[in-house]
Amino acid sequence: MSTMLDIQGLTKKFGPFTAVDDVSFKVENGEVLGFLGPNGAGKSTTMKMVTGFLPPTSGTAVVCGADVTRDPIAVKRHIGYLPEGAPMYEDMTPAGLLSFIAEVRGLKGPARREAIDVAVGRLQLDEVYNQQIGTLSKGFKRRVGLAQAILHDPDVLILDEPTDGLDPNQKHQVRELIGQMAKDKAIVISTHLLEEVDAVCTRAVVIARGRMVADGTPADLERKSVYYNAVSVRLHPDHVDNLKSALDGIGDIERIEVATSRSDGAHVIVVARNGATIIETVNARINDRGISVEQLYVERGRLDDVFRQITADSAGGRA
Amino acid sequence: MNNVCAIAKRELSAYFSTPLAYVFIVIFLALAGATTFYFGGFFQRGQADLQSFFSFHPWLYLFLIPAVGMRLWAEERKSGTIELLMTLPVSTTQAVLGKFVAAWIFAGIAIALTFPIWITVNYLGSPDNGVIVAGYVASFLMAGAFLAIGSFMSALTRNQVIAFVITAAACFLFMMSGLEPVQSAFRGWASPFVVDLVASLSFLTHFDAITQGVFDLRDFVYLASVIGVFLFANVVIVDLKKGS
Questions:
Q1: Of B217, B84, B173, B208, residue with least CA distance to A101
Q2: Which residues on B lie below 8 Å from A76 (Cβ)?
Q3: Are B11 and B154 in contact (CB under 8 A)?
Q4: ipTM score here?
Q5: Residues of chain B found within 8 Å of residue A90, distances taken between Cβ atoms
Q6: Pick from A282, A168, A205: nearest CA to A25
Q7: B103 and B11 in contact (C-beta within 8 Å)?
Q8: A-B Cβ pairs (cutoff 8 Å, strict)
Q9: Spatial separation of the C-alpha atoms in residues A81 and A217, rounded to whole Å
């Protein structure tokens, strides 16, 4: 493994407003990094600086050994980039656009034809190859944008919300594609969809208000959830009080949440203190009392919950 | 160089993928003909030259060329494609040059398509073809100067209509700076040096000098340097404003 992308103290100020504040992380070859944050957190601004579109106020990004503040052209050669919303020259066809990109990327002759064929094949663009991009559906436009980004088989792929606005099938396709390409690349995708992190990312960096608030594997993040290792119990509503008293006095229990609905019976969540393992104790108490339960399982922790928790925390800290 | 070519090729094909190119060329040719024969009195003058043809070019360019230049950067910024373009391995200078060259070639095609008038004048008499060639070169250079101004103005805004209007206004000032209304506005308060300087910036004086067959390298250098200055400013503005 080698470091393909090294972001060092990247900061961007627009007048008095700090959009990105001292963001640093590294991405290794083979990693798919999910770059998470609420809208307006600075994800796109960070990506624009890494790709050499915006100059950073301070800090830098090193891509495959090239420093973006000193040699942006070399950085751009190593990067394939899908900007937010996949802006495209609407009056061109995918054929025209891809051959233009190939030309600027320095691909010539048979190499150019092959690169275009591979990209078109991967994103299944054959049927719209000679149609004006402006007339294409959102899904196809996004795929043209992706084809353009992977055309020169870049070492680092930066995709700003690659699945935004796609239907579930298209999302699945794009995620598969990212998975296939991950082996010999470093990939950064920004998203605010947490399912995406679970589906494709090997690591997640969360930013809020321009600052990094978390960096770890999706499992690390789940561990931060208050629901990590919580025990979920489904049972008849009549047994809830019995269950509650049975669980009385276990030190590792933070609190007990009860939700009742007429159709499903009661759903009790026993929240563990600091993610302690409580399933065995809880299970033993239930068996002792002979309480009949319909379902009993351990929660993995909820990403969306962690996301809300850490991004809201930092917002509060700033205000 | 390769990048400039690639960008120029893309831009040029963008012109021809919309009706703009055809509308522009037809209108330009129609107006060039009409002004030459009706207002210029091509036949009545009874002279074998293209004075009556060239002398209207600055006025045609005044409102036609801004229409060619207005989309160059404003459209990229409005649609966001500037982010696509400027994250390719091209420098800002290459992008500015590529776009300018495409627009200039396009204007060149329109100018070249006026060749029947040159055939006509050669059929009717024996003109000084050297002067006519110089006239074409001057006309092409002036179109380039207008386009450089247009490209610069287009980078200032994401609205094409605004780009059109301010380009036309700027070109008008450049044209008129040698004429009495502008001169008298300066004469009241500025030193004679400044007044002369402003006068020397006039497109019309330099352009007319060339088309009348007075060969002075300075006239060509003037037009070329207007192109250079505005393209340089264009690069600076694109770098400053691309993110906003």
A1: B84
A2: 87-90
A3: no
A4: 0.87
A5: 79
A6: A205
A7: yes
A8: 68
A9: 23
Q: How many Å apart are CA B147 and CA B82, to the nearest integer?
A: 19
Q: How many CB atoms lie within 10 A of CB A274?
A: 9
Residue B229's CB is within 10 A of a number of other CB atoms, namely 14
* Interchain pair A103, B13: CB under 8 A: no
Token pair, residue B234, equals 């264009």
| Cβ contacts of B79 on chain A, cutoff 8 Å | 87, 89-90
Amino acid at B125: G
DSSP-derived 3-state class of residue B70: coil
Per-residue pLDDT of chain B (244 residues; tens, 9 = 90+): 789 999 999 999 999 988 889 999 999 999 998 888 888 777 777 777 788 888 888 899 998 999 999 999 999 999 999 999 999 999 999 999 999 999 999 999 999 999 998 998 899 888 888 889 988 998 999 999 999 999 999 999 999 999 999 999 999 988 888 777 777 888 878 788 888 888 778 888 888 888 887 778 888 888 899 999 999 999 999 998 887 6
- Tell me if chain A has a CB within 8 Å of the CB of B241: no
Side-chain-side CA neighbours of residue A260 (13 Å): 7
